[in-house]
Amino acid sequence: MMMAKTFQLDRRRFLAGSGSAVLITSLPQMSHASEADLLRARTELFGDRTIQEGRVTVTLPPIAENGHSVPLTVAVDSPMTETDYVRQIVILSPRNPLPLIGQFHLTPRSGKALVSTRIRMSGTQAIQAIAEMNDGSLYSGSMETVVTLAACVVL
Amino acid sequence: MAAIRLAVPDTAQRGEVIEIKALIQHPMESGFRRGSRGEVIPRNIITRFECRYNGALVFASDFQPAIAANPILTFHTVATETGELEFKWTDQNGEAWSEIATITVT
Questions:
Q1: What percent of chain A stands above pLDDT 70?
Q2: Which residues span the domain enclosing A116?
Q3: Which of A4, A72, B70, B78 can pair with A111 through a Cys bridge, CB separation 3.0 to 4.6 Å?
Q4: What is the DSSP letter of B53?
């Protein structure tokens, strides 16, 4: 009889409880970075310095069937001389668990500001590349790719 | 472990911009994956790559978990003199693997 009393559930409590259960299960997965995280990563790296659009070309396949390995090429329009070169290229994601994907450090001896690698993408998103020149100026470029099989669960 | 594959031209003209490809076999375990019993598989990634041309750093890269397994890099350098190109990868625990390629510049 005691047991029956403690587990007594009236209609009002049942509705309130089931309502919150639905709310919890329908909350979006919080493990992914968002556009805000990307902006925060940008601020951590470059402070409030202005980032101009242009001079950076990001190349990704228009559709990536496999998000575990997506070929990425970044080209920066720069003569790559001792006086005018790209110091680093930063690759950022608005949707991966971590906004920072990688950094490439170049020197005048790199000869050409053109780098390729393979990255993981957890879903359809626009990958952004920011190039820092030797004089400290910043340029950005981006490209969106549709990812059919996300590296979401596996990344 | 850690097989390395390099693509470096054997010969080049002085001042020529050469393309280099460097690949290392590595799982690049992101630390976001879960195993069959739901346990988190610990992160195990390479964090740093460096390419030195006769001792001078010409290209480097910092990796995050979003770099795919068996990381491959394609980059360029100016052929300045005959000598050695050293490629070095370092993982999060400080373990390092390296390989050397020779180039003849005419």
A1: 76
A2: 35-147
A3: B78
A4: E
Asked if the C-beta of B30 comes within 8 angstroms of chain A's C-beta atoms, the answer is: yes
**Structure confidence at residue B2 as a pLDDT band (50, 70, 90):** confident
Q: Which domains does chain B have, with CATH numbers?
A: 4-29+42-105 (2.60.40.10)
Residue A102 is nearest to which of B63, B75, B77, comparing CB atoms?
Answer: B63
Position A77: which residue type?
A: D
Q: What's the rounded Cα separation, in Å, for the pair A128 and B73?
A: 18
CA distance A132 to A4: 69
**What ipTM describes this predicted complex?**
0.92
Residues B93, B46 contacting (CB under 8 angstroms):
no
Q: Choose between B56 and A9: higher pLDDT.
A: B56
Decide: A84 and A101 in contact? Cβ < 8 Å: no
Q: Which residues of B touch A110 (CB under 8 A)?
A: 58-59, 75-78
* Residues of chain A neighbouring B18 (CB-CB closer than 8 A): 111
